[in-house]
Amino acid sequence: NAGVTQTPKFRVLKTGQSMTLLCAQDMNHEYMYWYRQDPGMGLRLIHYSVGEGTTAKGEVPDGYNVSRLKKQNFLLGLESAAPSQTSVYFCASSYGQNIQYFGAGTRLSVL
Amino acid sequence: EDQVTQSPEALRLQEGESSSLNCSYTVSGLRGLFWYRQDPGKGPEFLFTLYSAGEEKEKERLKATLTKKESFLHITAPKPEDSATYLCAVQARGGGNKLTFGTGTQLKVEL
After folding, report:
1. What does the buried/exposed string (b/e) look like for B38-72 if buried means 16 or more CB atoms within 10 Å of the residue's CB?
2. 8 A C-beta contact, residue A47 and residue A35
3. How far apart are CA B111 and CA B109, in angstroms?
4. Which chain B positions have a beta carbon within 8 Å of A38's beta carbon?
5. Fewest C-beta in 10 Å: which of A50, B33, B35, B75?
């Protein structure tokens, strides 16, 4: 019973490099989310999806893109990484507007 | 704009020493208030959802309560394994599925 799985767990990038974070859920949830967590700040929503093929902007979407080609997967892309994107990224999923279940996180450093 | 303030930022308790964590919120119509527990290096783990003032929920040594302006997480006779960061989040009515998180209370329970 995996729940929400994020890959990779850790990553170090150089400024300007690109990468994709993968989130997979096995709970058949319609809604999926990407958050970032920084010291002294609460979790902030980057983008979310209410179903396969749909995406929407959250609170801090600049510099990120997302795709939801399959119901169980939600990808977060950084096209040109910046040091300000150094953070811990969490994916979550939910059945409708209910409890959000989180993955273990991806720790990203941009040098 | 929805806001969540948690206090204290950090709390140290002796094993068996009961206490309460506070979550004050302002929201344009509360749909739900959520409590999560987050262990170091892991994702938030769901604890409780409260929907209306006066509601209470319990799980082992934890009890969550809700008023129109704040929520409390009461910890009775804590054990070292209760050490974690406790996060509070609110969901506004008509705000879709967006959660606004506080910055958390870091709890350490010592022997």
Report:
1. beeeebbeebbbbeeeeeeeeeeebbbbbeeebbb
2. no
3. 7
4. none
5. A50
Report the amino acid identity of residue A64: Y
pLDDT beyond 70 at A1: no
Chain B (13-72) residues lying within 8 Å, Cβ to Cβ, of chain A: 31, 34, 36, 41-46, 49
Q: Which residues of chain B have a CB within 8 Å of the CB of A92?
A: 43
Q: How many residues does chain A have?
A: 111
C-alpha–C-alpha distance, residues A66 and B58, integer Å: 37
pLDDT single digits (tens) B88-108: 999 998 877 889 999 999 999
C-beta of residue B34 within 8 angstroms of C-beta of residue B46: yes
CA distances from A106 to B17, B33, B52 (A): 35, 26, 34
Q: What is the pLDDT of residues A42-74, one digit of tens each?
A: 899 999 999 999 999 999 999 999 999 999 999
Distance from CA of A91 to the nearest CA of B (A): 9
Residues of B in contact with A45 (CB under 8 A): 98-99
Confirm if A82 and A17 have CB atoms less than 8 A apart. Answer: no
Most A CBs within 10 Å: which of B46, B50, B88, B97, as the mutation test of the A interface? B97
Search chain B and give the residue with CA nearest A31.
B97
